[in-house]
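Quick question about two entries, pasted in order.
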Amino acid sequence: MNTVTTFDATAARGRCRQFRRRILDISQNVTALHVAPAFSCLETVDLIYHGLMRWDNGHSPDTFIMSKGHGCMAQYVILESLGILGADDLAKYCTTNGRLGAHPDYGVPGIAASTGSLGHGLAMAVGMAYAEKVRSSDGKVYAVLSDGEVQEGSTWEAFMMGATLGVTNLVAFIDNNDFQSLGRTSDTHPSFYPLVDKFVAFGWEAIELNGHDAEALFKAVMSREGKKPMVVVCKTVKGRGVSYMENVPIWHYRAPNKEEYQKAIAELSEVSS
């Protein structure tokens, strides 16, 4: 089993640039998909698959839960790059003959749980991490949550239970792009912040970092104390990587038309921290 000790940030930026292009390509086959939510968490999801999870011939003892189900395009294109999903799967995204929907479905290769109903993913991740602990496995569980679902009461119940059960093998990442569909969280729900203080109060090791700086995220997880479950609040930009999509609410839902697609491809560059 390969144990990850280093992370190539330059290679990661190159991968994420190609992943963003792949998502844009797919967007030309459907009328709507969640481009901006995928772009905000892409560096985090890439880090989990290429920097944190251990792999041996395409298999890993570790588990990833995309609790932020509407960000699944980030997961789909990475699974394709790993050979777990095929190009035909992505070509048939959201079609009657395909098996990939707008949210992840359990049973699809590489998908550990059906998600999309916000507030469910962390509870499943806590349960999976506890199962690994009970059977004395070294399996680790990683989860990506949206900041919107952190407003769900079930999410806070899961945070409380995770600390109670001592699932130190669990690391959760919050994609804190400060948007909920059509509005900024900091405007509509100012008492939502500060997040780190709340997580610490619930018994977690917590830190806030630039969510597009994968190297910083990697170092933080690798240097964690490990006495508690960990949560990383990732400050991100919704639609990161395409200027006209960044922090513009409509790109939560819609796919770019041909002209917008060409503009996005032309300006797409590697996202730096």
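Here is the second entry:
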Amino acid sequence: MSTLLDDSLVIILAGGAGERLYPLTKDRAKPAVFFGGPYRIIDFALSNCINSGLRRIFIATQYKSLSLNRHIRMGWGIVSEELGEFIEILPPQKRVGEQWYQGTADAVYQNLYSIIREDSRYLIVLSGDHVYKMDYSRMLRFQQERGAEGTLATIEVPLTHASRLGIITIDEHERVTGFQEKPARGSPIPGSPDFALASMGVYIFDTAVLVHALEADANLPTTHDFGKDIIPTLIHQAPVYAYRFYDENKKASKYWRDIGTLDAYFEANMDLCQVNPEFNLYDPEWPLRTYQPQAPPAKFVFAEEGRRCGQALDSVISPGCIVSGSSIYGSVLCPNVRVHSFCHIEQCILMPGVRVGRHARIRRAIIDRDVLIPRGALIGYNPEEDGRRHTVTGAGVVVVTTDDEPLIGPLDDEALRFEAEADRRGGGG
């Protein structure tokens, strides 16, 4: 296995614009969006690589990559260059033409110079915007044992979800015989008529085979995409097999999420607040790494029950957060969030550096990085005003950015009296 890993190279595709996550991707690439408190989405693919023993990793970036590049530089310098290991950014270089990346396959094709120089037998191609736990060394061994020249990681999904994914058809030996990108009607798994095999966007190729396929595709008028072009062609030219996802998450159902929409992103974060979430962040046998800012411990201040009490229930609270006399329910607070007194926050995601003024009430919302929520703000309670002032998803989740002006709600006399009494007693907050 050690020899197999040493002869493997990884390229993570992290250049997508992430239009469906807008406005969270207004100023950052989708893989750089925060998830689950201190993490970025790309951390899960990178953690999988390190936990699998893979330590030669390229990251192909393109769209608004400054924050992503900085995160990689500050948080992922854990490999040894002296041992030939690296985690290296590959920005678009226009080495083979004047175009930016035209598709997922083109992103790899434009970096063939860097890939070929590493002289690895196997190339592992990953997406930088999925959340899951996977040991890629298992998949490498599967490729070797089957004599495959390409292997696709697959997961069983309900047939009703087939129109949103790449669907794979296999024979009795798990060899891929068909690949359809987002078909209207997917092909069921033999013996399981209600389920289909979906591609996870995790590929392993013999490098020489993929280089030939990419060079051939580059000269054709295609979309230069793995799912639409490379895979459907390659399965008729080389032995390509489907590898059934073995989940390191250790739960009853397999966890793999493409959190490509705001609602999917919101629900995946809210799951982490459950007593027994579907995705386990706390498994010491599968550590999830990230850049941890130099921040003090989270703190909850004021314990005046019924008046001003700093508390967080069923929530994920990151380092550097201060909850000052406010109530947090079922929410995710990223690092260095400050919530001032007399606030009620329920089912929310607060990105790093968010400041919430006194008496704010926020429900089912995503607050983007460094947003200052004004005193008395009312978010998630008035659909008409929310729709006029903010981005609102189909499921009613409100997304607040630095350019927005939230609705300011009225404060009753009793709330003002409590506030005046608290200020007289001192303590600020």
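Reply: The mean pLDDT is 92. Residues 60 and 90 are 5 Å apart (CA to CA). Hope that helps.
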